[in-house]
Design brief:
Chain lengths: 761, 288, 163
């Protein structure tokens, strides 16, 4: 029997518990003797801690302890970087708790342990912290001046500048017939998850059990073990249900040390659940960048080169994956377009703000906004149709594998694996109805201006270096799957059951369960980031299947005294010589691991097209139609992939129009609640369409799959801005900054109406 | 974001409620809790005693008679939505309330709570001012009636004494032929208004407008009537030109503060557009 | 102080501080962890429950205010044997990803469909705009709720749950 669960829109197993409220998230766990941790966070953006007086707090009934840096023997450890850990970043790593200085509003200063969260918060109000304020660095410009340093002994606020290079950009610009230079900015926002973060730690007889793990539990265990002076084998990271990740949850944060430390310090289980006020100032921020960029073209519209410099607002410390977005801005500016000469720099600037990490499509959302805006401006200048201009410059299928610009200092040799970008663009335009809608551009109908936009993207996925999976035969002959990949809501329990069932050629209901993330399940794992779970975990599963079959054959050959080659495995039946017939249930307990090693990335790609209308008098934008076409190679579950695309697109629209983490010039975060941090709601973007295709499997993994969680978000900023520019052409509106708020649109329209008054944006 | 500690009382009568409020510094009345509880969650408010009004069923009535519409202070948004009489009895109230918050909030939030909270960007205080409402209150010193115009003093600040409870909001009678409009612009549906206009006027047999009331929400410390804009409407046939001129006058009169969602200049322009559009829609035929 | 109310068909009496919210009481004292906490300031809707048949934000109610009320949580809208028509519709339409907003969405949708089984897409969006989802982008959730209308129209009342 050949299965075909892979490729089918199988309904998710997870939903059986999620729809009934039977999920188990970390705050649903409450062991006996639990103490609650509440964190005192700095309300000063930059300063020196003179004293912390906890006496009054300790007097409150129900307060058990207050932990500060002084209580950590040997001083508070620092958090090492996980991705791209260059030595240049080391001086900028974050200590697990503020030690002498605070560098952002929200930085942990003390941990209160109390018998209830409410009492813990009462205690926070009684802790007296004396901080001598220092002038704050509130943006990249101030950071670059260099007269206000976050790390005085280091002498600079800039840990690193990445350079993306290919060809000879300077030469290309010298001879190009056409050059245009522009500045753009993206606003600070983040991968807010509906479930805030949480950590629960239990310490007993020299063993530490940490719940609330997500994304990269194995790596985090490694960090924690070093910090606590424990062998990794003494720590178990338990991943339960996780309420969203998006790149932000699951990296190693200060609390990931503080809570386990507290549990060991007081000898009782400790649980910390982040509240939303904290989450806004403590979960990794993202996306804030500015670029000064120029493009060179031939008269016929062939793009010859890109040159420029981006400045990325990093916040106060280098987080575990803090460098990724900045690096990606440089490498992904060209995206799916063939640009032979590139010199792009991306400088990281430390500021007194919440530190920055990855958020879905890190650096790519920013780069695509910068690039797609530039392309529309150039098309207008050269009087070439915007669609044609893009089509002409897309990387061709025959160019694959296509070498991406090299990033210094990594000297990476990344190659785009496969795809036909024009096919997806054409499909998108056709489904969208571009030729019918074209005539609406710039028209004023019933008080609203109509605009269109189109854009193309690539998303990188499937980071290596490896992933592990394990299969085990249950007492009833069904098979349990254990994977190092993590679940963050993307449906791994179903998707991996599909892959396993197909690989083993057994019914899906004979996969008893998919156990993910926790360190107890496999010998080593890497987790869920960079859209890697299906490619890496799924491929490891195929290897595990092969190894399980080999193990069954070897066991059977001993049991039945024959050669392994005499054993045939057909679905869950084991057939030997002399009429021997057995089933998996006769081989209970056999378990085999598989791994998949990968140094190359996969590149999902596609196109977006949108139709917007704008009320120019108030700056209100409505998305009338939005079509996304994504080719992600082999589709495991078309239903979950479409869900990822739509979900990620709405996040992108949030970043393009609504979400903004606003700071004042003292480094005070002015966004304190969800009344100010505006998330998309059900009424905001009802007219979205997505088509997922599987035209070009990836050649670099046995599944042929590509990572597919991030394509929806990447194009949204550029598309919305271009569509609004198209709609408001009458007023000469050219957005150069996100989010594109009603006020910003109104200001640009007003400047267009009254050109003699001060223009903005 | 757990609440700070407080004492709690749930009196059975209005007199008890007033006495409890008077008994303590920093005692506060609790109606729907949709505005007060979040403030306590952020520890911006920390009352020593909460006096829960939920047993005061007399405050839940909507009375409609010749004098107009009387909303008991504990009437919820949902009750206004569900009351079909209000379609004719006060369509402007109905229209404004349809913009308030979200489904779950509307099942708990009350008109009295909203009025007492006095957020300058909230719809109900705006309606109260635009419609010359009267706020009936009861306190330790007895009962009194405060005009809406005198009730709202500053953001989150009203003329209520510490021991006073709102019992009723009284809206004057609404003539059947009245023209009205409500226009609001918020970042997302259900958010507080960046600016909103609540307008009405009456017409004589020639179609000329008089008694124009143009209320502005979200453009000052409190909701206000824009008399300069009203002057553009009174005595005229309300057409496109008159609406536009009224909008211009509205913009010129206000001097709003900016915040992270909207600058003063933008709000200034926005209220003009809201007034203009509300007037334009007022001229259109309304289906009851 | 003690407070007594009905939860999912059962009478309970719990001892609470006045400052304890109803959602914390349900989750931690009654161990009904299906209702989730996403913001604690009345915006996200993850804490939606039914009180006397109406959808409310449990984070904005004090436990003491539930005295004498009839409270229904997601557990009371579910049963062991099978998914309810609304739950099955969520599953069929892939209206669930991380699951954190899901109990609030389902409870709100159940309240809406019980009162308005003929609601249209605009009404569904309007009502659900008080429930934030970060994963799905809402399109599949709206589809799921619309598809469940027939189950609410058929029966005399809401489809079987424990309440």
């Amino acid at each position: 029997m050949r299965n075909s669960f892979v490729g089918s829109p199988v309904e998710r197993r997870e939903d059986l518990r999620f729809t009934r409220g039977r999920g188990q998230y970390v705050d649903d766990l409450s062991p006996d003797g639990l103490l609650y941790a509440v964190i005192l966070r700095s309300s000063v953006a930059h300063g020196c801690i003179r004293s912390i007086d906890t006496a009054a707090a300790l007097k409150i009934e129900g307060v058990h302890a207050v932990i500060t840096a002084q209580d950590i023997p040997g001083g508070p450890p620092r958090i090492a970087m996980r991705l791209q850990p260059l030595p240049e970043f080391k001086p900028f790593e974050q200590s697990v708790i503020a030690d002498q200085k605070v560098r952002y509003v929200g930085e942990p200063i003390a941990v209160v342990l109390a018998s209830s969260v409410a009492i813990g918060e009462d205690a926070l109000e009684r802790i007296v912290v004396d901080i001598e304020s220092l002038p704050a660095v509130s943006d990249c410009e101030t950071s670059a001046k260099g007269d206000r340093l976050l790390f005085e002994e280091h002498g600079t606020n800039c840990p690193m500048t990445f350079t993306a290079k290919c060809g000879d950009a300077d030469a290309a610009f010298e001879t190009a017939a056409y050059v245009r230079r522009e500045k753009f900015r993206t606003g600070r926002h983040y991968g807010l998850t509906m479930e805030p973060r949480g950590v629960m730690a239990e310490w007993a007889t020299g063993r530490l059990t940490v719940s609330g793990a997500a994304k990269v539990p194995f790596f985090n265990r490694r960090i924690l073990a070093k910090q606590m002076g424990l062998p990794e084998t003494a720590i178990a990271m338990v991943e339960n249900d996780v309420g969203g990740g998006f790149g932000a949850r699951g990296e190693f944060y200060p609390e990931d040390f503080l809570i386990p430390f507290a549990a060991r310090h007081v000898g009782r289980p400790v649980k910390w659940i982040e509240d939303r006020r904290e989450n806004l100032m403590a979960m990794n921020h993202a996306r804030q960048a500015a670029i000064d960029v120029e493009i060179a073209c031939a008269r016929d519209g062939t793009i010859l080169g890109l040159r420029g410099h981006a400045d990325v607002d990093m916040g106060a410390y280098m987080r575990t994956n803090g460098a990724v977005a900045a690096r990606n801005i440089a490498q992904f500016m060209s995206g799916p377009y063939r640009i032979p000469n590139i010199k792009l720099q991306s400088s990281l600037w430390m500021t007194n703000k919440t530190p920055v990490g990855t958020y879905r499509g890190p650096g790519r959302f920013e780069a695509d906004f910068f690039r797609e805006r530039l392309l529309d401006l150039v098309a207008k200048d050269l009087d070439i149709d915007r669609v044609e201009f893009r089509r002409r410059n897309l990387i061709r299928a025959s160019d694959m594998p296509y070498r991406m610009p090299t990033i210094t200092p990594f000297e990476s040799k990344d190659e785009i694996d496969s795809g036909d970008y024009r096919l997806s663009l054409d499909r998108c335009l056709q489904e969208f109805g571009w030729s019918d809608k074209e005539k609406l551009q710039e028209r004023l109908i019933d008080g609203r201006y109509h605009g269109l936009a189109v854009g193309c993207f690539i998303e990188g996925g499937a980071a290596g270096p490896k992933e592990t999976a394990r299969l085990e035969i249950d007492p009833d002959g069904s098979v349990a799957v254990f994977i190092g990949s993590s679940a963050v809501g993307q449906g791994v329990e179903t998707v991996f059951a599909q892959i396993a069932a197909d690989a083993l050629e057994i019914p899906m209901d004979r996969i008893s369960g998919v156990h993910h993330g926790s360190t107890a399940y496999v010998s080593d794992g890497y987790g869920a980031y960079h859209s890697r779970s299906v490619v890496m975990g799924g491929s490891a599963l195929l290897d595990a299947t092969k190894n399980l079959h080999d193990l069954i054959r070897a066991t059977a050959s001993k049991r039945y005294s024959c050669a392994p080659s005499d054993i045939k495995i057909v679905e869950d039946r084991i057939i030997g010589p002399r009429g021997i017939s057995a089933t998996f249930a006769d081989f209970v307990g056999l378990t085999a691991e598989g791994i998949f090693l990968n140094k190359k990335h996969t590149y999902t790609y596609g196109a977006h097209a949108a139709h917007v209308t704008v009320d120019a008098k108030i700056g209100q934008v409505e998305i009338v139609d939005y079509m996304t076409v994504v080719d992600c190679g082999r589709i495991i579950n078309p239903m979950t992939v479409r869900g990822q695309v739509i979900g990620s697109l709405v996040q992108g629209l949030g970043g393009a129009l609504l979400e903004d983490l606003v700071y004042d010039d003292q480094g005070q975060l002015l966004i304190g609640s969800l009344a100010d941090y505006l998330l998309p709601t059900a009424g905001d973007f009802p007219n979205l369409r997505a088509i997922v295709t599987d035209m070009f499997p990836s050649p670099i993994n046995p599944l042929g799959a590509k990572g597919a969680g991030e394509g929806g978000i990447i194009s949204a900023g550029g598309i919305v801005a271009n569509a609004v520019a198209n709609a408001l052409g009458t007023f000469g509106v050219e957005p150069r900054e996100l989010p594109l708020t009603p006020q910003r649109i109104w200001e640009m329209v007003e400047a267009g109406r009254h050109p003699l008054t001060k223009a903005s944006a | 974001m757990k609440l700070p500690a407080f004492e709690y009382a749930c009196p059975a009568t209005l007199a008890e409620a007033v006495a409890l409020l008077a008994s303590r510094d920093e005692a506060k009345a609790l109606a729907g809790g949709q505005s007060l509880v979040p403030m306590m969650a952020f520890r911006i408010a920390a009352p020593s005693l909460l006096v829960d009004l939920r047993k005061l069923s007399d405050l839940r009535q909507i009375t409609i008679d010749k004098s107009g519409v009387r909303l008991g202070a504990m009437v919820r948004w949902r009750d206004i939505e569900d009351d079909a009489r209000l379609v004719a009895a006060h369509p402007l109230l109905k229209a404004a309330v349809s913009h308030v918050a979200h489904y779950q909030i509307r099942n708990r939030g009350t008109v009295g709570g909203s009025i007492a909270h006095a957020d300058p960007a909230a719809e109900m205080p705006g309606i109260a001012v635009a419609c010359d409402a009267e706020i009936a209150v009861v306190g330790a010193a007895g009962s009194r009636v405060i005009s809406a115009d005198n009730f709202f003093i500053a953001p989150l600040t009203t003329a209520l004494a510490a021991d006073e409870i709102i019992t009723e909001i009284r809206l004057p009678a609404w003539p059947a032929q009245r023209c009205w409009g409500f226009r609001e612009f918020s970042r997302r549906r259900g958010d507080f208004a960046m600016a909103a206009a609540a307008v009405f006027y009456d017409v004589d047999d020639a179609g000329t407008a008089h008694n124009a009331h143009i209320g502005a929400i979200g453009v000052g410390d409190r909701p206000v009537r824009l008399t300069a804009a009203e002057a553009e409407v009174n005595g005229k046939l309300v057409d496109v030109t008159v609406s536009e001129r009224a909008g211009v006058a509205a913009s010129a009169t206000v001097d709003p503060q900016g915040d992270i969602h909207a600058s003063g200049a933008y709000r200034k322009s926005l209220i003009g557009t809201m007034v203009e559009r509300a007037l334009l829609s007022a001229g259109a035929v309304k289906v009851a | 102080m003690p407070v007594s109310f009905e939860v999912n068909g059962k009478q309970v009496t719990v001892e609470v501080e006045p400052r304890m919210t109803l959602v914390d009481c349900l989750r931690h004292q009654l161990r009904l962890t299906g209702t989730h906490v996403g913001c604690e300031h009345g915006v996200c809707g993850a804490c939606t429950i039914l009180v006397d048949g109406e959808a409310v934000r449990a984070c904005l109610m004090l436990a003491v205010q539930a005295e004498g009320c009839n409270v229904v949580t997601i557990e009371g809208l579910s049963n062991d044997e099978a998914l309810t028509p609304l739950q099955a519709s969520f599953r069929r339409h892939h209206a669930v990803q991380c699951g954190f907003c899901t109990p609030g969405m389902i409870t709100t949708a159940h309240a809406l469909l019980t009162e308005e089984p003929d609601c249209d897409a605009d009404r569904v969006r309007e009502v659900l705009s008080g429930n934030i989802c970060r994963c799905t982008g809402y399109i599949s959730i709206v589809e799921a709720v619309l598809d469940a209308r027939s189950a609410y129209r058929k029966s005399q009342g809401p489809p079987e749950g424990r309440s």
